[in-house]
Design goal:
4 helices, 5-stranded antiparallel β-sheet, globular, Heat Shock Protein 90, 5 strands, about 140 residues, alpha+beta
C-alpha cells in the first residue's frame, strides 16, 4: 500500500484529488468510476478538514493510502481527529429527493454521494484513528 500525507487544510483538497486521480488512472479505473471516487474523496476530505480539525481549532494531517489489485482500487483516509463515522449519518431518501430544493433538509447529500458513488465505502476507528475506506471495482476492458 502506498502512503502520501497531506496537511488537513482546505488548500490540500486539490492535491488530494489530484493524487487519487493519478493513482486511480494508474490502476485502470474507468473515467466514470474515477469521477465518482473523486466526488466521494472530496466530500470526506472536506468533512475531515472542516469538522475534524479546522472548526475545532486543531491541526493535523490526512494520511492517504492507495492500493490496486487487478480487480479493485482502494483508497484509505486516516486521521487523528475526533471519531466520526459518516455511515451513521441519516441519508436522504426518495421522499427527500422529490421535495422542492428549498424544502429539502440540509446535510447528508455529500455522504449519500460518497456511499452510492463507489463500489464499497466503510468506516472504522482503529488504533485511535479514523479510517474512511473507499473501494472501486475495476472493470475488465
Amino acid at each position: 500500500m502506498e502512503l502520501k500525507t497531506f496537511p488537513a487544510i482546505i488548500d490540500s483538497l486539490d492535491a488530494i484529488r489530484q493524487y487519487v486521480k493519478e493513482k486511480s488512472q494508474e490502476a485502470g479505473v474507468d473515467k466514470k468510476a474515477t469521477y465518482n471516487l473523486l466526488v466521494a474523496v472530496d466530500e470526506i476530505a472536506t468533512n475531515i478538514i472542516l469538522y475534524g480539525y479546522q472548526n475545532v481549532g486543531l491541526e493535523g494531517n490526512i494520511d492517504v493510502f492507495s492500493e490496486a489489485t487487478p480487480n479493485q482500487f482502494k483508497v484509505i483516509f486516516e486521521d487523528d481527529a475526533t471519531p466520526f463515522d459518516p455511515t451513521t449519518r441519516e441519508l436522504p431518501d426518495e421522499e427527500d429527493f422529490n421535495l422542492p430544493l428549498e424544502e429539502r433538509p440540509i446535510g447528508g447529500l455529500g455522504i449519500y454521494l460518497t456511499i452510492t458513488g463507489v463500489s464499497d465505502f466503510s468506516y472504522e476507528y482503529k488504533n485511535n484513528r479514523n479510517r474512511n475506506i473507499f473501494v472501486v471495482d475495476i472493470k475488465s476492458p
